[in-house]
Amino acid sequence: MTKKDKLLTVLSDATAAGGGIYTAQEIAYLIGEKYSPALTKFLADCAKKGLIRRVAAGLFESTLTPPAPTTAIYKIAKKLRNHVISYISLESQLSHTGTISQIPMGRLTIVTKGRSGTFTTPYGVIEFTHSKKSVSSISPNLYFDSTVNMYRANTSQAIADLKDCKRNLHMLER
Predict the structure, then answer these.
(1) Which of 13, 28, 134, 152 makes a 20 to 30 Å CA pair with 38?
(2) What is the pLDDT of residues 13-62, one digit of tens each?
(3) Domain range holding 10?
(4) Number of other CB atoms surrounding residue 36 within 10 Å
(5) Cα torsion at 110, 80, 51, 33 (round to 10°)?
(6) Closest Cα partner for 124 from 112, 143, 107, 145?
(7) Count of structural domains within the chain
(8) Number of H helices, E strands in the chain
(9) 21, 80 in Cβ contact below 8 A?
(10) Same domain flag for 7 and 54
(11) What span, in angstroms and rounded, lies between the C-alpha atoms of 98 and 171?
(12) Residue whose C-alpha is closest to residue 9's, from 54, 62, 83
C-alpha cells in the first residue's frame, strides 16, 4: 500500500470514529511515519493534488471524508488552541443565546488563556482573544456544549468578556 493510499484509508477510518481535522503530527502518527520535513512535503504534495485540504496552519482535512460543515470550524478552533483553556464567548455566544440580534456570519469569537490571533479557514474566520482573568474566576461561568464539543460562556460572562476586551457594546439589547 502506498503512503497516499494509507493516508486516505486512515483518514476515512478516523472520520468514521469522529475525527475530521488533523494536525500534521497526528497524520504522521496515523500513517506510522515520523514527523519530519519529508512528511511535511508529502502533505503539501497531497494538498496540491487535492487528496487533503489545508484548513489552517498545520491543520488538514480529507477532501473525500471532510468533517460536517456545521461543526468543522469548532474542530479547527480546538486544534488551534488545544493546550490552553478556550471557550466560545463575545459576539458568537451572545448571538447564540439571543442576547444580541446580530448574527456573526462566518466568524467565531473565542476567549482564550493562550495567545490572541485570527485565523481564516474555509469554514470562516476564528478570532481568539486573550483573557488575563484567572481560570478560577472564569470556570464557574462556563458550560459544555456537546453539540460542538466546546465550552461556552454563560451570558453574564460573555458580556463581561465583551466589556473587558473593550468591544462594541451598542449591540446589547436593553
Answers:
(1) 13
(2) 776 666 689 999 999 998 999 999 999 999 999 999 999 999 999 999 98
(3) 3-62
(4) 11
(5) -160
(6) 107
(7) 2
(8) 7, 9
(9) no
(10) yes
(11) 11
(12) 62
What DSSP assignment string belongs to 38-86? HHHHHHHHHHHTTSEEEEETTEEEESSSPPPTTTHHHHHHHHHTTTS-E
The C-alpha cell of 48 is what? 496540491
Residues 6+ away with beta carbon under 8 Å from 48: none
Helix axes 37-48, 3-16, angle to 10 degrees: 80
Does residue 138 sit within a domain? yes
Q: Is residue 172 part of a domain?
A: no
**Can you give the pLDDT at residue 108?**
97
- Per the CB < 8 A criterion, the answer to whether 97 and 152 are in contact is no
The span from the CA of 47 to the CA of 43, in Å, is: 6
CA separation for the pair 111, 44 (Å, rounded) = 31
Enumerate residues 6+ apart whose C-beta is below 8 A from 82: none
